[in-house]
């Protein structure tokens, strides 16, 4: 188990590994999280909360989450839309 966890976090220095981001869910809403490269955080769009990633480790403790303002949500949505168009 520890070896598997270490393997998932090895590539996290440059963000979050795709496998790990597919596994993690919001601790409050239990909905999938989206990785935002701009803020280096995991975003729960269901409840509008952003969870920081510190030293490659997602901090999913509810008190660490920050409520995202409506303006910030539209910026992250626009960034996600443009990245999808570039793929």
Automatic annotation (TrEMBL):
Any coiled-coil regions, as ranges: none
Entry's family note: Belongs to the PREY family.
Protein name: Protein preY, mitochondrial
Species of provenance: Carpinus fangiana
Source organism phylogeny: Eukaryota, Viridiplantae, Streptophyta, Embryophyta, Tracheophyta
């Amino acid at each position: 188990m520890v070896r598997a966890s270490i393997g998932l976090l090895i590539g996290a220095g440059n963000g979050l590994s795709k496998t790990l981001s597919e596994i993690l869910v919001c601790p409050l809403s239990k909905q999938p999280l989206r990785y935002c490269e701009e803020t280096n955080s995991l975003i729960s769009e269901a409840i509008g909360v952003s969870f920081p990633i510190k030293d490659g480790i997602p901090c999913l403790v509810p008190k660490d989450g920050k409520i995202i303002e409506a303006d910030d949500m539209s910026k992250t949505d626009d960034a996600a839309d443009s990245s999808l168009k570039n793929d």
